[in-house]
Write a structure and sequence with these properties.
alpha/beta, three-stranded antiparallel β-sheet, globular, 12 strands
Length: 379
């Protein structure tokens, strides 16, 4: 079994698992307790938050732990527009190929009265900063553009969009769930006010994430109760998973860059092998602009992606995003870059991990080419 679906979820790293296990066992204290068990847990959370902050160039008090990327995204959009002092007032700008964890809350806010603008992306899979600038109005309160597209891997010019937002006095959020661990993510270099991190994309467990909140910003809490997370998010802390995320982010900072070039080389090798075995009918998405080093989105001719993967059980991949895998309906990304329904039906996303090997890539290509020929012959 060759796993090429790391954009859906990455395996928990061994040292990450070992780091969090004590907090599932003998270091089980509540961080709010005043005794030694509570002190152990509290210290572990502080260290984890320091590790996350250091990895993205933030201050410790600018990091809020959440349950994952979806909560972080919802927190930003709803926390900004659902506050009692400005309930559903103002204008929101998002890109057309955001993850559903941004698009769905944006549409929800629009139903409540927020004025929503959805800016297109270019066929290359890149958002034009000038189009974002044109969409901003005097009442715009937030722009949300993902750092890297989860389906085709294209990186967005967040620093350029940030400069525009700063000039116009507008807050900027970027969902970096897919880019953390695969490229350099520094909140100061990007110029963002809010940044989303999802643990399970970066070798930590599912069910933990983080949100970067620039120090002088405020979001109305989604989860209210006792004032955990400095009043930003109520609920007894998930100590073990927060420790895991801290450890994973420390790995990103210490050795993530060592894997990026290798993944890009293997990604390109996979493309060449598939192209040789299938021919000119095979095309790829997002290849003309800067993209994540691990992501290859290809359109297989004469077959459906679902049928191809069903005929190739040796390879774990997705037809688009894992959230849509197995469906024939076009995703927002496929529509945004202008893929026809016929081409989109054959789309498969391969996403490599830190530990993907050349042997696995060569074997995967052989399996896929064999399955493609079998599927084509039977269709």
């Amino acid at each position: 079994m060759i796993y090429l679906d790391n954009n859906a979820t990455a395996p928990v790293d061994t040292c990450v698992r070992e780091a969090c296990m004590p907090y599932l066992m003998h270091r089980f204290g509540n961080p709010s307790s005043g005794h030694i068990k509570g002190h152990e847990a509290k210290a572990a959370i502080i260290k984890a938050k320091e590790q996350v902050a250091s990895a993205i160039g933030a201050a410790v008090d600018e990091v809020v732990f959440t349950s994952g990327g979806s909560e972080s995204n919802n927190f930003v959009l709803k926390g900004l527009f659902l506050g009692p002092d400005h309930f559903c007032k103002g204008h929101l700008v998002v890109s057309a190929f955001e993850h559903a964890a941004v698009l769905k809350p944006a549409q929800y806010l629009a139903q409540l009265g927020v004025d929503l603008s959805v800016v297109p992306c270019q066929p290359s899979g890149r958002v034009d900063p000038n189009v974002v600038a044109d969409a901003i109005r005097p009442d715009t309160r937030l722009v949300s553009v993902m750092h890297a597209n989860n389906e085709i891997g294209t990186l967005q010019p967040i620093d350029e969009i940030a400069a525009i937002c700063q000039t116009k006095g507008v807050l900027l959020h970027s969902d970096a769930s897919q880019s953390v661990g695969k490229t350099n993510v520094n909140v100061n270099a990007l110029g963002v006010d809010f940044l989303t991190i999802a643990g399970h994309k970066v070798y930590a467990p599912k069910g933990v994430g983080a949100l970067y909140m620039r120090r002088d910003t405020y979001l109305h809490p989604l989860i209210q109760g006792v004032g955990h997370e400095n009043g930003h998010r109520a609920g007894t802390e998930n100590v073990a998973y927060q420790v895991a995320l801290g450890c994973a982010m420390n790995l990103v900072q210490q050795e993530g860059f060592k894997h990026w070039e290798k993944m890009a080389v293997l990604r390109d090798l996979l493309w060449r092998l598939l192209k040789t075995g299938i021919g000119d009918g095979l095309t790829q998405n997002g290849a003309t602009v800067e993209r994540l080093p691990n992501t290859l989105s290809v359109n297989f001719p004469y077959v459906t992606g679902v049928g191809l993967l069903a005929a190739c059980p040796e390879v774990c991949a997705s037809t688009s995003a894992a959230c849509h895998s197995g469906q024939f309906n076009q995703t927002v990304t496929q529509k945004a870059i202008g893929l026809s329904p016929e081409v989109a039906a054959g789309t498969v996303r391969f996403s490599l991990g830190w530990h993907t090997t050349q042997s696995e890539i060569e074997q995967a290509a052989a399996y896929l080419i064999r399955a493609w020929h079998l599927n084509r012959d039977t269709n």
